[in-house]
Structure prediction request, 510 residues.
Amino acid sequence: MNPTFKTLAAGAVALSSLHPASAQYAPPPPPAPFAGFLNEALRQNDPYMSKWDIGGSVRFRYELKEGFGIPGVGAGATTSLDFRDRGADVYNDYSLTRIRLRAAYTDRWWGAMVEGRSSIASGDERFAYANNPAVAGTLPRTGDGPESDTFDLHQAYLSLGNHKEFPLSLKLGRQELSYGEERLVGAFGWNNLGRVFDAAKLRWQTEWFGADFFSSRVVIPEDGRFNVSNDYDYFSGMYATSTRIPKHTLDLYFLARNSSPQALAAEAAPQALQPGARDIYTLGTRLNKPKPKPGEAGAWDYTFEVAGQFGDFRDTRLGVNSARLDHLAYMGVAQGGYTFADTWGSPRIGLEYSHASGDDNPNDNKHGTFENLFPTNHKFYGYMDFVSLQNIHNIRGIFEIKPHPRLSLAAEGHAFWLANTHDNFYNVAGAPRGGIATTPGTAYGIHPGYGSFVGTESDLIAGYALSRFAQLEVGYGHFFVGDYIKQSLSAPTRGSQDADYVYLQATLNF
Prediction:
């Protein structure tokens, strides 16, 4: 192991082990509300300036990874693969800086917001666009990695309406979409770029429910060029939430992703792989009882979510002109936790099970792999970001404690199994590792005879609120490889190894 990695890993473990506890990380709240330096100054001198919101944030993060595949590095026998032990580079450390500046104005019946973003990466070995497997009409690009976008427009939208006086409102323009826990639709805030859509969103708000009806196109990040949306990838739907069940929220949603064959090569060198042709419709529901607030009775919290999908899907690995496959898939999540509110640090213990279907026969005309849509997977399937909600069983144990109002400590453990060994092991971005068939022991792919156990992951996270405008965070993760990975990389030129991850992060709001 790299000496620098050993030092940082030891430091992360020490900080995360200040209390013998483990947990799902929850950022510590600031010691006092903070509207931003400029906002506070303007509003102090002129109360009418409260209609304005002018501010921003800076976030710096250093990441160190060992045992991670590096997209674009190596080719053929030297290809960099997750958990590969020999013959390829699987060590990468880099820094990420994200700066956001915003100006917003809200009047009685309308509002507007513009937000710029600068995302800078230094030392990242990953290609900006690896183009592997190759997509016709696109070219690989080295760049500064997939999380670099020196300057671009993050959000710019106009909102019309006032729910205090009328039940309908409209938001038009570039904006974030975030629903539920962000398992299927999220802003992907952990990423140095984030995710936005060019969208039109109509909201219907009553005392019984609130419902969004939207149509959108996801924005494609491209460093050095103004980011545009994918004209061939439409994402639309309805997401409704009701709080009429006491202490609960109930969500109902219908989501549609319609991508034409041109979507895959909509831009010549995108920093995120674009989708192949598909028309996938998702119908789901979610029941949530949140964690109790301080002083609130009822220490249990839980969430249940299920979703089914139908439609059609073209597997681009079979060719861009291959037949559309009938798509039928599903997912389910059940989680629960208990908070010891009267105990020092208010510790919480939780357990979660998540499952998404895989395909049971790659040679028929059906497709059974759940489509993860536009999630923030970092929050749910391990902080090392190896897994998505596709062809997976995930059992997760979580523990969190707050020994000081400004300090949150957390740890969690995951155990992963493939839902079906006739399907792939998918990465966090939803792409399959390996191809449909590979030489045994040299790469990932579809191996029905291999064991389904992927491995386990342990994570430790600590966060400290330095002030009402500054926060520090540190994390360490270790992935223990299971039978599926060991067998996939069993060739003498490959071999498998566990993976390690350390990050240090500082955030400043202004």
Summary: The chain is about 5% helix and 45% strand. The two ends are 39 Å apart (CA to CA). The mean pLDDT is 92. The chain has one domain: 3-509.
